[in-house]
Amino acid sequence: MKYVEDAPEAVLAAAKDMLRKGLVEGTAGNISARQQDGTIVITPSSVDYADMQLDDLVVIDIEGETLSSKDGRSPSSEKLLHLASYKAFDDIGSVIHSHPVHATMFAVTHQDIPACIDEFSIFVGGEVRCTEYAASGTTDVGEQAVKALEGRGAALIANHGMVAVGPHPAAALHITALVERSAHIVWGARALGSPLPLPDKVNEGFAAIYGYLRQNPL
To answer: What are the residue boundaries of the structural domains of the chain, listed by start?
Structure first.
C-alpha cells in the first residue's frame, strides 16, 4: 500500500500550489493523501485555500468516517471519489480533484484528451479518458472515475472537472498541471486544423514507462 510521509504538510503545500497555479478558484477542488496507517488526510469542505492551515485538514478512514476534525469541519464533499480511488489502486498515495478551465472544457463536451504531445504518456499513461456522467458527491462518480483511471494518472469527470492520482500530492499536482496544459494546446491546435496523435508504437512505449514509474516512483 502506497502512503505519503508527512501527509498533512504535503496536502497543504499542494493545495496552496494548486491555487497559485490557477487550477481551482476559492474552495473548489480537493486534495488527499494516504497515511501509513491507512487513514486519509483530506482538505475540508468550504475553506478557502488561501486561508487553509494544517489544523483545518480532516482525517477520515477508508470508509469515510471522520476521525479527526477541527471545530467539526466536514471532509470534502467529494470524499467518495477519493476513497474509491484508494480502494481500487494500492499503488497511489494521493488524489487531486480540480476544475482547470481547458481540461473541464473537454469534460463538459465528454471528449477524451488525446495523447498527441511527445512524452505525454510517460506522465499520464495515454489519452485522458472522460467518464460517463454521474452526479457530484455520489458513489457513482467514484465508480466511473476508477474505470477511466485504469492504467492512467488522470481522468476527466463528465460535466465537472478532472481527477489525478500519484504517489504523493506533488506528483498528482504535476499531472494535473500537465493535463491542463495539454488540453489547452489541443484546444488551440483544433483552431488550426486536426491535431495528429502520436504513433501507436510511440505511445505504447511511453505508456510502458509510465507503468514502470508508477510502480517505482522517483
So the answer is: 7-215
pLDDT in tens, 128-164: 999 999 999 999 999 999 999 999 999 999 999 999 9
Query: The domain at 7-215 falls in which architecture?
Result: 3-Layer(aba) Sandwich (3.40)
Q: Which of 78, 150, 180, 204 is catalytic?
A: 78
Listed residue (82, 77, 12) closest to 50, CA to CA: 12
Which whole number is the average pLDDT over 53-62?
97
Q: Is residue 78 flagged as an active site residue? A: yes
pTM for the full model? 0.95
Instruction: Tell me how far apart the alpha carbons of residues 174 and 196 are, in angstroms, rounded to a whole number.
Output: 24
Whole-angstrom distance, CA of residue 21 vs CA of residue 174: 11
- Sign of the CA dihedral running 174, 177, 181, 183: positive
Strands, E assignment, 52-199: 58-60, 66-68, 94-98, 154-157, 161-166
Rounded to whole angstroms, the Cα distance separating 130 from 83 reads 19
